[in-house]
Amino acid sequence: MIIRRCISGDIESVYKIEEKSFSDPMKKETMFRDLERESYFCYGLFEKELISFISFEKVFDEGQIISVATDVAYRKKGFAEKLDDILTPFKETFSSL
């Protein structure tokens, strides 16, 4: 299992999970655009493929979580909780997250 920052090649997988998880998913075009912003972060948990992700952004001196979702087949197994570890170093630099 690997946790790493998502790249543009991961957006299709992120979008598929987002689409299955939310009634009003973020648009794919917005995801691509956000990935280019320095203040936006998206991390994924990968086995052979993306199974869970978290996206957040820096707004002034605060962190704002945008989305956390896990593929339907992997839910309720603690994968999204593992992504919480990603937030630890950011909690030290943001006034709130």
Characterization of the model:
The mean pLDDT is about 90. It contains three helices and four strands, in the order E-H-H-E-E-E-H. The two termini are about 25 Å apart. Strands 1-2-3-4 form a four-stranded antiparallel beta sheet, with helices on both faces. A hairpin with a 2-residue loop joins strand 3 and strand 4. It is α+β, with helices and mostly antiparallel strands and about 100 residues long.
Question: Which features does this protein show?
Answer:
97 residues; alpha+beta; 4-stranded antiparallel sheet; 3 helices; 35% helix
Tell me the layout of helices and strands.
Elements lengths: L1 E4 L5 H11 L6 H8 L4 E7 L3 E10 L2 E9 L8 H15 L4
Antiparallel strand pairs: 1-2, 2-3, 3-4
Q: SS-based structural class?
A: alpha+beta
Strand content: 25-35%
Give the end-to-end Cα distance, rounded to a whole number of Å: 25 Å
Q: How large is the radius of gyration?
A: 13 Å
Structure annotation, total helices: 3
Topology, number of strands = 4
Helix/strand order, N-terminal first: EHHEEEH
Strand order of the largest sheet: 1-2-3-4
Which regions contain 5 or more consecutive residues with pLDDT less than 50? none
* Average pLDDT score: 91
Helix content: 25-40%
Q: Main β-sheet: number of strands, strand sense, barrel status?
A: 4 strands, antiparallel
- What's the overall geometry? globular
In short:
The protein is α+β, with helices and mostly antiparallel strands and 97 residues long. Helix content is 35%, strand content 31%.
